[in-house]
């Protein structure tokens, strides 16, 4: 029988449509990614992007020249622009402000054909280090309240360039999803005097039915009420509300479990389009006892149609316990390079 499941953090309801139950092989994965041709993110084409704001490269390399291992540049076609003042104003009952923010592209590898999933661990760690560096730097700008950091892989997930990259958008307001998480986790904390994410970690380790993998510092689970088949959350075991507080060893451990999660997903659903998003505390906030930073990885396997838009519910044809089992049993014979 189908189940209605409630997300314990924001109260979102999910329909687990068990009568539509599917195995990984039952999904038709759209592997039409993005068109080839000229790539502005490849080495040698640095002059086609705005000047870099961060680069990891050997000593002696000149800025905006080849030889980099990772490069961060402003988006050439930004959703928000960094110059100007916020300029909040009202128009009757409507509120508006200038589109002030920052929109950057993190180019994760110089190799056009190298995927994020198969990056060597050292280079994947660099990606997570770059995320932290940009969050710290953008946090110095008082106009910004939040940085949304995300990756789109595959055309179905919103990627417009084939070269492996992720993005960030700094915002002058808090996104509704983050506000809902903060409010939901604070309500839970006031009632139980515990962090809901820490309780999730304890229960998932104890029940061991939605656990995908773990290491010394992180746990990876299929959440109790997932929006998408094979959705995964990667959560630090030790309570921490802000990603910027993660030290080098923590980011190495994050890269190790993230690499394993992506390879497990790729083994179950080869080359599946996906998004991942960092959920972290607002910029410049003090340590929050009720909130816990984490990444959410969401494969693009189902459509958002009329019922979902109208109700706010998601329909998931794979029970999270079954998805976790498939992911745990995935073939990982190809190990990541150190």
Please describe what this structure looks like.
This protein starts with a strand and ends in a 10-residue tail after the last helix. It has a single domain (3-328), classed as HIT family, subunit A. It is an alpha+beta fold and 338 residues long. The chain has a 10-stranded antiparallel beta sheet, sandwiched between helices. A 3-stranded mixed beta sheet has the order 1-2-15. The protein is globular. 25% of the residues lie in helices and 21% in strands.
Which structural class matches the secondary elements? alpha+beta
Number of strands: 15
CATH topology: HIT family, subunit A
CATH top level assignment: Alpha Beta
- CATH H-level superfamily title: HIT-like
Give a short summary of the structure:
With about 350 residues, the chain is α+β, with helices and mostly antiparallel strands. It has helices at about 120-140, 175-190, 195-205, 250-270, 305-310, 320-330; strands spanning about 5, 15, 55, 70-75, 90, 95, 100-105, 145-155, 165-170, 210-215, 220, 230-235, 275-280, 295-300, 315.
